Each structure stands twice: as structure tokens, then as C-alpha cells.
Write the C-alpha cells for this entry.
Amino acid sequence: MRILIVEDDVEAAAAMERGLSEAGHLCRRAADGEEGLIIAGQAEFDVMIVDRMMPKMDGVTLVETLRRDGDHTPVLFLSALGEINDRVAGLKAGGDDYLVKPYAFAELIARVEALSRRRETGSVQTLLKVGDLEMDLIGRTVHRQGKEIDLQPREFQLLEFMMRHAGQSVTRTMLLEKVWEYHFDPQTNVIDVHISRLRSKIDKGFDRAMLQTVRGAGYRLET
């Protein structure tokens, strides 16, 4: 899950990021509301964790701005302000949940994951599109520039994951866990073999290579 943490307390934000990363989530941090607004406009996130009281732009104003701009990413407010009126104000601004500080980290993760599930069940995506590459999740077909590309089941899973994370560096660990469901490194070249096969199918014969190797990091599907 991709999570944006908007928190001006550096130590609190670092601890949150560390815990969420250990739970298998990808995190980015913003130090205030203005930076959070910029980052939210540059990338797609599954959930945002937003502190209410911040310099430059407070959390309520940030979320109100995002909602006016058509960004409906689920938002979990964090705040030391725990009165009913404070919670109501956060929810009316467009927040989806509200957690009062101090909080138990296990509850934070549970609420974040619940927001993500709620979003997934709320809108079922059946077509993925990255540049001139299209994937029909129901028909299980892939086309590039109108040309059908024949993929094996594992290649299809691999490409689906890459398309859902287009423009981002995807690590070998992420692929092993999400595509092969391995929670350990089998010390084989299984990923390299499948990446090579997938690259030859979606890039060969086209004027632009989309599947890139990111040295020392993993792979990225260019948008």
C-alpha cells in the first residue's frame, strides 16, 4: 500500500514511517500541509495520514483543498484535539477517519488498512492504462497500440502489478511478495527470467521501451 504521511513532528513521522514500512507499506513523508499538497499532486496514494495542526497549511485546509481538486484518496486524521467538535470538523472537511493522539500503533495500522479495503471495494477497476499499453482485467487481455500481446498467467500478474505501480521503482522483494507470494528470497533468477520475457513481449517492435531496469533498486514501468 502507498501511504503519504503529512506530519510536522519529525520524530513522530519517522517512527510512523518505520512501523508502516516494516508492515510492508510504501511511505512518503511531507513536513507540512503545503508540501503534502504538492506531493499528493505528483503521485497516487492509497491512503493519507494527516496531522491536523501543522505550519504553513493545517490538515483541515489541506484535505478541503484536495477534495475541491477532485482527490478522493482516503484520509486518516491524527490529532491531539479529541473533542467531538474537533472530530466532526475533520470529518466534514473530507476526512474518512479520525485518530486521537497518543494512539496505539496497532490501531493506526488497522485503521489505515480498513480505509484501503473500503476504497478497493467502493470502486472496482477493470481496465488499466499506462501510455499506449492497456490491460483488460476481466477479459484478461493486453494490447499496445491496438496490437494484442499474448501473456502467460504469471506474466499477466507481473505486468498488472507493474501497471498498478507505473512510474515507481518496484523492488525484487515487492515482486516476490505480491506476484509470487514468497515472503523470502528463493535465491533464484525467476524474476529476471520473467522480466526478460515480459520486456520482449511489450517492448519489442515498438518505438519506445516501457519496462526499465533501475540500477540497484529494481524495475519501473515508464508512464
Summary: Residues 2-122 form a domain with the Rossmann fold fold (CATH 3.40.50.2300).
